[in-house]
Amino acid sequence: MVEQVEYVVVGLGAFGSATAYALARGGADVLGLEQFELGHVRGASHDTSRILRHSYHTPGYVALTVAAYDDWASLEREAGERLVTVVGGLDLFPAEATVPVTDHTGSLSANDVPYEVLEPSEVQQRFPQFVLPPGTVGLYQQRAAIVPAARGTQTMQQMARAHGARLQDRCAVTAVRDRGDAGIDVDAGGQTYRCRRLVVCADAWTNRVLEGLDVRLPLKTTQEQFSYFAPADPAAFAPGRMPLWIWLGEQSFYGFPCYGEATVKVAQDCGGPPVTGDSRSFDPDPGREALVADFVARTLPGIGRPVRSKTCLYTLTPERDFALGPVPGHSAAFAAIGAGHGFKFSPTIGRLLAELATTGECTADIGPFRLDRPVMVDPPPVDEWAV
Ligand SMILES: Cc1cc2nc3c(=O)[nH]c(=O)nc-3n(C[C@H](O)[C@H](O)[C@H](O)COP(=O)(O)OP(=O)(O)OC[C@H]3O[C@@H](n4cnc5c(N)ncnc54)[C@H](O)[C@@H]3O)c2cc1C
């Protein structure tokens, strides 16, 4: 039995849920398929919090963040729910920073986004929780915010359904076949769906889904980890006194103020071992917890000890730019991968994928994210994952 559907979205994490929402909101006939239960913790869109920020190393990304803030605001309005908690953000550039602060300041200026550059003493004065090595420069952007990962994804699912999308979970896509003008066949749950357009938002499992289209992308999945610390004085880490922060050293770390509980979340960015979506474990690595604890013991001495740690997946492109756009060789198929920094953009990525799937074009410059850009076709020997 083949069921005709206009649009099929594979994967209902943040990206797929946002895409189903944007398509359904535009009146399209959408079927979203998820292999696990909605809200599961096996991918990249679970847990409490994600960073939404303007401060990025290229003008293109900063421009995309401006759209992201607007898309989160319109989702909040339509859902009647507060999702964005502005707390301010502090990027910390030590002497050996992997990205020069001028990349960020230049990109922010190019988009008229206000910011402040703080000398070490100014950082110390404004945020006495930090103990920083000499020469560390701070870049403060007051609009940096926290968005809820699991709850935000759920809200997009609810809005998609409210606009008529069918979302089916525990329904793994096992094969896709391009039938040219007839559309694309998608096998799932013992059923075949023939769709006019296919959107693949399968993150760590992307290459498995694209097998049927004979496409393989140079993606690497890593098992990332974050820890919650219990400060003796949580008030000192509360929003208003403590910003979001990102340390852009050789080893990169980032952290949040208290959010919904009297703990402080901190993690190393991009330090995890290579895994697959199915081979990964859920057991936090004590060595990696200790590495983060050592860093914050030096840099945020009042933060206390870790009380729990969890794991999560990054799926990375060679230079850690997104992959977003048509699947090479298949004009009816589109895909997106967030490269470990996509959640903040999810309502926007969903909207852009919906525009691409419905009109073949979109309202943002996605040229840098093409799936057939040079590094995706001929990946460099060494990955460049600093963002
Ligand atoms: C620890 C951590 C911290 C992060 N912090 C930030 C941050 O602060 N800010 C930020 O912007 N980003 C951050 N990110 C990145 C961000 O969370 C991801 O880029 C984003 O969640 C990716 O969403 P996704 O929908 O593409 O992936 P996922 O949520 O993994 O969704 C993919 C879905 O596809 C489903 N699927 C796969 N194969 C199939 C199939 N065959 N059939 C049906 N369904 C299938 C999977 O089950 C899954 O649900 C972080 C990520 C991690 C891991």
Key structural traits:
alpha+beta; FAD/NAD(P)-binding domain; D-Amino Acid Oxidase, Chain A, domain 2; 9-stranded mixed sheet; 8-stranded mixed sheet; 20 strands
Describe this structure in words.
There is one protein chain. The chain is 26% helix and 29% strand. The strands form three sheets. Strands 5, 6, 7, 13, 14, 15, 16, 17 and 18 form a nine-stranded mixed β-sheet that branches. Strands 1, 2, 9, 10, 11, 12, 19 and 20 form an eight-stranded mixed β-sheet that branches. A three-stranded antiparallel β-sheet has the order 3-8-4. The model has no long low-confidence stretch (mean pLDDT 97). The protein has nine helices and 20 strands. It has helices at 14-25, 59-79, 101-110, 120-126, 149-162, 206-210, 286-299, 346-359, 374-377; strands spanning 2-10, 30-33, 49-52, 85-86, 89-93, 116-118, 137-141, 145-148, 166-168, 173-178, 184-188, 191-200, 220-230, 244-248, 252-255, 264-269, 274-275, 305-316, 323-327, 330-337. It folds into two domains: 2-45 and 150-219 and 319-377, FAD/NAD(P)-binding domain (3-Layer(bba) Sandwich); 89-146 and 220-316, D-Amino Acid Oxidase, Chain A, domain 2 (2-Layer Sandwich). The longest helix has 21 residues, at 59-79. The radius of gyration is 21 Å and the shape is globular. By secondary structure, it is of the alpha+beta class. It binds flavin-adenine dinucleotide. Flavin-adenine dinucleotide (FAD) binds next to α1, β3, β13 and β18.
